[in-house]
Amino acid sequence: MKFGLAIPNCHGDFADIHLVAEVAYEAEQAGWDGFFVWDHIGDKWGDEVLDPWVMLAAMAMRTRRVRLGTMVTPVTRRRPWKLAREVATLDQLSTGRMILGVGSGGGIEYVNYHEPGETQTHGARMDEALELLSLLWSGERISYEGQYYQIENVRHLPRPIQQPRIPIWVGGVWPNKKPMRRAANWDGVCPIGKGVSMTEQMTPEQAHACFDYVRSQQTSGQASADYACVQWGIMDGKDRGHDAALASVYEEAGANWWIENLSWERGTLQELRPFIRQGPPVRA
Hints:
This protein is α/β, with parallel strands linked by helices. It is built from ten helices and ten strands. It has a single domain (2-278), classed as Luciferase-like domain (TIM Barrel, Alpha-Beta Barrel), CATH 3.20.20.
């Protein structure tokens, strides 16, 4: 089991870029394996919002080992070729530590900014965008003619350090099965439970059912590859033995990454620093 943290890129001192970079350093020193940020641009939770890519660049400059990424990027709100450049550049900057968490997105960040496309097409647009990302990261010269995206005779260099691509983890709401079928084709799944709040988590039984379904959708080749099954989790940080036992239960359910869900509902970033400095309760 690997252990990571995810924080908002918005609201209060979570939008303090200097603090975020320092906390990322502290997380690495404490032994966490990953540090992830939300990807919002103008949010229902307040006007204080940082750009996630600048956040990740600042974090990359303050760390050497911890994996970095988004949880999650609404791909259909991005131009795939611009996103490909941003994430590949961060992979270079971090010496191969980037992970791209993705989701279909929706809500006021589309409506208020008059983003194109209907909600019903987000899944199909996302599938094309993910295919394009993988092609662009190959470093080969490509053309692409899709229903939603088209490019002609382009080549993206330098390639990401990670090959054949930067890992793509697909988010979705369980028990909705369509995003889980999508996740089976990529490098990881990071589900949230339907109706689960930011201070709750899926039960071990729900997590097991989700991971088992994703695995059932994979080919034998996909099933044998390194694959991330993410539990979007909540530990109390007070009883480390209890936290270790809780993580073990989810590991038995199929999770191999625990990502601690931190937000203002659990405190300010300053208030959460003691929890982060404790590090994860157990090591793989």
